[in-house]
Amino acid sequence: MIKIIQGDITTLAVDAIVNAANQVMLGGGGVDGAIHDAAGPELYKACLKVPEVRPGVRCPTGEARITPGFKLSAKYVIHTVGPVYRDGQHGEPEKLAACYRNSLALAAENGCKSIAIPCISTGIYGYPIEDAAKIAVREVKGFLAAKNANDAKGEGRAPSRPQMEVIFCCFSERDAAVYEQLLSCGDPVV
Ligand code: APR
Questions:
Q1: Kind and range of the H or E run holding 67
Q2: What pLDDT digit, counting tens, does each position of 152-178 carry?
Q3: Does the Cβ of 28 fall within 6 Å of ligand 1?
Q4: What is the best residue among 31, 96, 117 to mutate for testing ligand 1's pocket, by most ligand atoms within 8 Å of CB?
Q5: How many Cα atoms occupy the beta-carbon half-sphere of 73 within 13 Å?
Q6: What is the pLDDT of residue 137?
Q7: Which residues make Cβ contacts (< 8 Å) with residue 167, sequence separation at least 6?
């Protein structure tokens, strides 16, 4: 199930919230800063324990890492690193799509029934919201459809377990309106 909320992701009582982090994964501005502030210093310590895959990089662009949520209402924080937008011709769409796929997969692997995701890369990283939202909606719809089918196969009938709830948490009214438009008229998202 997909929902749209306009507000502060750190206040949401869901199983996991997604953080739009950077590759160092030790905090920053924007939603990253808000999540670290709300989770408390334990989050920084947990991020510090995430192994570097190469000097200064704990989470490569497009990948995702999970930590506890500490003081947050959310049980987990899933840190993902979106692409810095240049012109959309340098692999940015593919990397952004991977952020959503990998965050959702990590949430499912950890038994999350609800996950809230901010508008990854559309702030400091400059991704145009209209383009980013199309990718986000396409990837979430695809993930839920595949997961639902898989759950049904496993149970041999319509899944009795509730489907994962995915919440697009938009900080601004404008961003929420972009998502509403996409989800309401079922745009053939590219
Ligand atoms: N709740 C929900 N959404 C938020 C919040 C919040 N508390 N604060 C900011 N946002 C929104 C922004 O308005 C934007 O729509 O999150 C979206 C992502 O913006 P950024 O946080 O700037 O993230 P991003 O564009 O992916 O850039 C990542 O910024 O904060 C640093 O460490 C981070 O270097 C990384 C870079």
A1: strand 64-68
A2: 787 666 656 678 999 999 999 999 999
A3: yes
A4: 31
A5: 10
A6: 98
A7: 2, 3, 4, 5, 12, 14, 114, 115, 116, 117
